[in-house]
Amino acid sequence: MTTLLLRSGALLDVETGEYAEGDLLCADGRIVETGPGLKAPDDARIVDLGGATVLPGLIDAHVHVTAATADLGALTTWSPAYAAAHSARIMSGMLDRGFTTVRDASGADFGLADAQAEGLIRGPRLAFCGKALSQTGGHGDSRPRGTRVHDGHQCCAGLGRIADGVDAVRAAARDELRKGAHHIKVMAGGGVASPTDRIDSTQYSMDELHAVVQEAEAANRYVAAHAYTARSVSRSLRAGIRSIEHGNLIDESNVAEFLEHDAFLVPTLVTYWALKTEGREFGLPEDSWRKVDEVLGAGLAALETAHRGGVKIAYGTDLLGGMHRHQNEEFRIRSEVQRPLDVIRSATSTAAELLGMSGEIGTLRHGARADLVVCDGDPLADIAALAEPERIRHVVQGGELV
Q1: Chain-centroid distance, C-alpha 176
Q2: d(CA 120, CA 98)
Q3: Cβ contacts of 77 within 8 Å, gap of 6 or more
Q4: Which domains does the chain have, with CATH numbers?
Q5: Does pTM surpass 0.90?
Q6: Per residue in 331-364, pLDDT tens?
Q7: Strand locations in 252-366, DSSP E?
Q8: Taking a C-beta distance cutoff of 8 angstroms, is the pair 4, 47 a contact?
């Protein structure tokens, strides 16, 4: 494995928010030493950074690498091979934008994760959940009103699987865990890109939510829940769900619940901006496009409420189709209500904690995986250094310059 020495960089400690001028040495896929004037091993590849900023590889905690179209219902008709080819292209683009690890929030499976780990496809490390669990008529049920037949075979390219009742959701959770899921995803409320539910609906009974949490905890895994409203978020947190996806319509009452349950919020603000401006161009059905306004304006206020209350917030984007290219724009949007350092932590150390990989990724500590981003400019002073992918000079993954 290549030994890599990055010379003369500004190394950002995301935990303290402080810079250290110096070099960074990677060997065997790990960070082994940092400091000024490091001696390069004989076999080392040396890259002179000329003072550019070095920070941990970015982590996006809410992606859909199989969502090559915003028409999620159409995905179920695609050949799995065709969907995988699209996913390889999408993942490669994410790596180029500085994201060395992503958490897929439904759609990706062990096949894509294994292919990336083995070097068969180029892309970020992939934490997957398989198919999201949805009640009939829930956010993961892509059938229009007149369609009765549902083919939930695991090889279908859709994002969700339907399971109703405590026994059925237990079986579905166990099945995704059997296939290696890093977490379980449930649809606990209505959504934009689903045809038959209201955004303000709650989904799944408390008994069903408790059953999924029990199965995940038995496997030392956790549950993430799609939820927008204060009511659906509250139900999810009380059921023991660890990660709330979106949360655009939360209010002050939810903050104490997040803190009580040590839960995470994963806002995905960029996707609503992208869906409103480009969604129909990339396949979003007209009825879904009309729903976007219900959550678009509230997202920043919800983020500000959660941040002010001390909620742990991870970085997420949830982009679909040709809109994946806007992945870094989330940095700029969040900086309207958060300091750049807080946004950077959400995409590094906080996201690593959510994934159960603190100390492994999202840090420049010695012994951590050598996943790194080198950018031009100081992102603490100007978040555009990360929001604009063209300013990312180098990406290192597992100690390799990629």
Answers
A1: 18
A2: 19
A3: none
A4: 3-57+360-401 (2.30.40.10), 58-327 (3.20.20.140)
A5: yes
A6: 999 999 999 999 999 999 999 999 999 999 999 9
A7: 264-266, 312-313
A8: yes
Q: What is the distance between the terminal CA atoms of the chain, rounded to a whole angstrom? A: 13
CA distance 355 to 272: 24
| Distance (Å, whole) CA 304 – CA 323 | 25
Residues making up the chain, counted from first to last: 402
Query: Could you tell me what percent of the chain has a pLDDT over 70?
Result: 98
Average pLDDT estimate for 303-308: 97
Reference 245, options 237, 383, 177; nearest CA is 237
Torsion over CA: 294, 295, 300, 305 (sign): positive
**Residue 151 token pair:** 């083919």
DSSP-derived letter for residue 388 is: S
CB atoms within 10 A of CB 68: 25
Beta bridge partners of 20: 11
pLDDT of residue 380: 98
Q: Using CA atoms, how far apart are residues 102 and 95, in angstroms rounded to an integer?
A: 10
DSSP state string for 126-192: EE---SEEE-TTSTT----TT-------TTS--SEEE--SHHHHHHHHHHHHHTT-SSEEEE-B--S
- DSSP annotation of 210 reads H
pLDDT of 5-26, one tens digit each? 999 999 999 999 999 999 999 9
CB-based contacts of 331, cutoff 8 Å, min separation 6: 340, 343, 344, 347, 383, 386, 387
Tell me the C-alpha to C-alpha distance, in Å, between residue 337 and each of 106, 271, 302, 308, 343: 28, 17, 10, 10, 10
